[in-house]
Amino acid sequence: MSIILIITLAYTLAILFLSRGLYRIDQQQPSSASLPTNNNDNNNDNNDDLTFSIIIAARNEEHNIAACLKSVFSQDLSTDRYEVIVINDRSEDMTPYILHDHLHLYRNLRIITVTAPPSGISPKKHAVMQGIAAAANAVIVFTDADCRVSPTWLSAISKYFNADAALVQGITSYSYVTGMNKMFYGLQSADFLSHGVISAAAIGADLPINSNANNMAFRKKVFEEVGGYAGDTNVTLGDDDHLLQRVWAAGKKIRYMSDPAGAVETAPAETLRALFEQRRRWGSVTVHYGARQVALLSAVFAFYVTIALVAVVSLFNTSYLALFGSLLLVKFAGELVLMVPGTRMFGKKKLRKYLPIASLIQLPMVLAAVLSGVFGKFEWKGRVTARTTR
């Protein structure tokens, strides 16, 4: 029983640590991000003249790319301040033709076509690296081809790039798909939001863990200073997480964009199988995190494993049912500590009603996704792959 108590205490401390970080992010009002740049800073950047290179890697996105580009090119900033670079990553559908048709619509659209990546380099990282190398502007901004951004997206991002900011991470949420079961949508949305809340909390606690390339911006020169993706180019996914942690390890300033004007929307998984494959992909990258990040996540994962083991024991010895129930309550209470302020911060209070059921489903989902993602293979963009590329 003592080991269970120790693991539970470690989980509780991890939640309190993240809660403190989320509180710090919550105190950073958008207006504070609009303060003028320090004129003595060597960057010599002013929020009103920052320039952006938006990079979108697209593979077989014929159903999404046109709507994505329409939203990206609807920014309230002058088109002189941003360019859009789309990397056609070995698409086998109509994506290349759709992109070509859009060249005459947007003068600041550039298209790069890539073929098979060099041996030992993740295809996604290879594609993104081509876009970064071609970028002409000071700030690189990532989003995905299946996303939609608001007209105030770049304006909101620019507010957070004060003199010392090297990277800005924003929230991504799910948009409702017509005809989708509302319970399935709600549970997915609550779980997906929890990843954004954890990201914000960890950044606020000065121990960045996870990121999302759907809504990320960073200075190109910082990317070069930290060595880009060097050292983990063979890791299939997680380029956003690894870059976030690399920038942090170099002592650079990271900010979380809590302003709803900078939020991005993407579509949820349409089936339970697709949802599980997505979570497996996410779980596969956690073993490549930094030691301190792994330690924090391990405290949570060990607590989840403990709950599962006690649940199994309870099937044979009902005296453990009370302990099982108590552990579930601790788990749920810890989640509420983060998700109640998180749903408020990001304007998602309607998702609170899904939290109890989502908490129960998340436990077996996380255990299965992480273990199968780390030790097995997963499907991504129509291909079965492992967590590293040889």
Describe the structure.
The chain is α/β, with parallel strands linked by helices and 390 residues long. The protein has a single domain (1-390), classed as Spore Coat Polysaccharide Biosynthesis Protein SpsA, Chain A, CATH 3.90.550. Helix content is 48%, strand content 14%. It contains 12 helices and 12 strands. It has helices at 2-27, 65-72, 95-102, 123-134, 153-160, 182-204, 220-225, 239-249, 272-284, 291-316, 321-345, 355-375; strands at residues 52-58, 82-89, 109-114, 139-142, 147-149, 165-170, 172-174, 216-219, 253-257, 264-266, 378-380, 383-385. The protein has a 7-stranded mixed beta sheet with strand order 3-2-1-4-8-6-9, with helices on both faces. The chain has a 3-stranded mixed beta sheet with strand order 5-10-7. A two-stranded antiparallel ribbon has the order 11-12. Helix 1 packs across helix 6 (182-204) and helix 11 crosses helix 12. It is globular and about 70 Å long. It starts with a helix and ends in a 5-residue tail after the last strand. Residues 32-44 have low confidence and may be disordered.
